[in-house]
Amino acid sequence: MRRSLPSALLVVAALLAPAAALAQPPSDGPDQTIAPDQRTAVDEAVLARGHVDIGPRYVNGAWKLMVHDDTGEQSAWRDLDRTVFQVSDKALLTVPDNPAYAFIGKPGAKVHVLPQVQNTEVTWVGWNTQDPEVMETVDRGVTLTLTGVDGPGELFVYLQAGNFGAADVLWDSTKAERQDIWVDTNTHTHANWVFTTPGVYFVQVEAHAKLVDGKETRNTATLRFAVGDATDTKAALAAAPRTPASAAPSTTASEEDSSGDDSGSGPPWGVIALIAAVAVLGVLVVVVIVRGRAAKRQGTSG
User: Fold this and answer.
1) How confident is the model over 266-277, as pLDDT tens digits?
2) Is residue 198 over pLDDT 90?
3) Containing domain of residue 230, as a range?
4) How many domains does the chain have?
């Protein structure tokens, strides 16, 4: 698993743009707190600029991956199925002629970038584990896992250290495997989000954690991005990803439960039927052998 660094260590510029253009200090800072009674918005929303974080929270006792929206007058949590992150052409930057960024594309190529350090012209997307109930119930931290990307191009999410070292790539859509980010509780982090081609992207993410009571909980949700001015945000809201997120809103189970005797944990019925058939066949073979020996004895005595 990769580490997720606290925002206090991420006072940096996005390396795909001049540092001066993105040098303004974060509007939220690393010490943001989230009130336990913040409302959950139920309306559809297009988030085009301002500060937002994806993160887990509890909704009526159920673990759920949502987005914490700070773009309005009052902060609110939003359902990801009813939210689109709009990435306008103001996010267009040029891939530099630097081997360190060859993973993004060819030098000179235009890509859309939501930067690690806030640019007030575009959405500032990060993640947090600061829901009060999450901090109270989670044992140490949360794993955010990229499980799939459905879009016209590639997605790269990476951190850039303040010393302008190599990019720490967290999520790379060119890789087929699941990709984990470990996030300590009470963490607030931002990263660079790079989209190589305009269009609608569905980014499937799972939030998984072990709780202090020994149970585990997880939920999978889909982030929707409308990349480029020509991309219709309404279509992004209405469209369905080809690889949908888990239908179950959340699961919580202890390790002990997974070895119990409930109906869902026993052997498949097909295996049971096969075992029964083999047992019946064995009985028939025994009967045939016994009858054959009896017939042989009768023939000898006659």
Assistant:
1) 444 443 344 444
2) yes
3) 45-205+217-238
4) 1
